[in-house]
TrEMBL record:
It catalyses: Endonucleolytic cleavage to 5'-phosphomonoester. It comes from Letharia columbiana. This is Ribonuclease. Keywords: Endonuclease, Hydrolase, Metal-binding, Nuclease. It comes from the Eukaryota. Belongs to the RNase HII family. Eukaryotic subfamily. The lineage of its organism: Eukaryota, Fungi, Dikarya, Ascomycota, Pezizomycotina. PANTHER family: RIBONUCLEASE H2 SUBUNIT A (PTHR10954). Its EC number is 3.1.26.4.
Length: 344
């Protein structure tokens, strides 16, 4: 089991991780893919300032949101803009910071400005997100062989996002990334893949570098809106007679330490199938609830023995009473008995 839940949120951080009731639904929300439990990537248009001159030197930041929750996707955000505007536009003008220290409403307002044509953020900044569905995270971590752990999934998402930006012709000179595990090892791997770019991998990069802060906002607002999309499949008239209930009120932040989340999980669990594609079944929270006595139905799937397993042709073999030599081809009598040449 991935040790991610040992890094769970402290109770005082839950309000900051809970989606805003009126979260901005960004273009990075692909409703059908989210409801289908599929992972996907979204890229904004290349900003006007950069598209007019692709030789413009840019700075790029990457961060994630939703690493620890049992509900909803994990989202990687990428953000880039001209190097000369890095701190003046992001930190001084718009006050981007680590998304965990910004209020849900302020995060949402920053994302809305970023997606609104005509604003300085829209004209100068590009961004992208990789939505890693709970279903795909779980299936990777629960593989019977060759487990695809969360760190490996996260690193692949980061590399693919950066490669996409280079493929668009963007002149990225500096990259800043919030670390996964050991910063030095992670940085060396990225330097081998992107040898012509200055790369910095650091702990707390989302509070040190404005481009990483902006990436964290893109990731967090996208995750919040994705949670809202997932939750609406459960918001019935019985749950809210006057108007649909928001995810913030129903299952809260999606973290196991959030009482709203665990209460919702217990109250909406199918005894055999558990929950839908919004749940990370590889998390111990979900596993324990399913296996708890009196609340779950355990299914033991038989393990086939390759040495004693039946062949497809075993179903076509004949019995000893039909007079056919069992040493002959097992399929020979499938369409009838062999006919002697004398008949013709």
């Amino acid at each position: 089991m991935e040790e991610i839940e040992s890094q769970d949120l402290a109770s005082q951080d839950i309000p900051q991780e809970t989606p805003a009731k009126d979260v901005f639904i960004a273009p990075s929300i692909h409703g059908q893919a989210i409801l289908a439990g599929a992972s996907y990537t979204h890229h904004s248009p290349i900003p006007e300032v950069v598209s007019r001159n692709l030789s413009t030197e840019c700075i790029l930041g990457v961060d994630e949101a939703g690493r620890g929750p049992v509900l909803g996707p994990m989202v990687y955000g990428l953000f880039y803009l001209p190097l000369i505007q890095h701190r003046s536009l992001l930190a001084q003008t718009h006050h981007f910071d680590d998304s965990k220290v910004l209020t849900p409403t302020f995060r949402s307002s920053l994302m809305k400005a970023l997606c609104t044509p005509g604003t300085d953020l829209y004209q100068n900044c590009g961004w992208a997100t990789r939505v890693m569905s709970a279903r795909d995270i779980g299936s990777g971590m629960l593989k019977p062989a060759g487990t695809y752990n969360l760190n490996a999934q996260a690193m692949d998402a980061t590399i693919d996002l950066i490669k996409d930006v280079f493929a668009k012709g963007i002149n990225v000179r500096e990259i800043y990334i919030d670390t996964i595990g050991n910063p030095a090892m992670y940085q060396k791997k990225l330097e081998r893949i992107f040898p012509t770019t200055m790369i910095t991998v650091a702990k707390k990069a989302d509070s040190l570098y404005p481009c990483v802060s902006a990436a964290s906002v893109c990731a967090k607002v996208t995750r919040d809106a994705a949670l809202e999309v997932c939750y609406q499949t459960y918001a019935s008239a019985a749950d809210a007679p006057e108007e649909p209930q928001a995810a913030a009120e129903g299952w809260g932040s999606g973290y196991p330490s959030d009482a709203r989340c665990t209460t919702w999980l217990k109250g909406h669990m199918n005894p055999v199938f558990g929950w839908g594609s919004e749940c990370r079944f590889s998390w111990s929270t979900a596993k324990d609830l399913l296996e708890a006595k009196g609340t779950g139905t355990k299914v033991d799937w038989p393990v086939e023995d390759d040495e004693q397993g039946m062949r497809v042709t075993d179903f076509f073999s004949t019995t000893a009473d039909d007079g056919i030599d069992k040493e002959s081809n097992e399929l020979a009598s499938w369409f009838g008995r062999p006919v002697a040449e004398e008949v013709f």
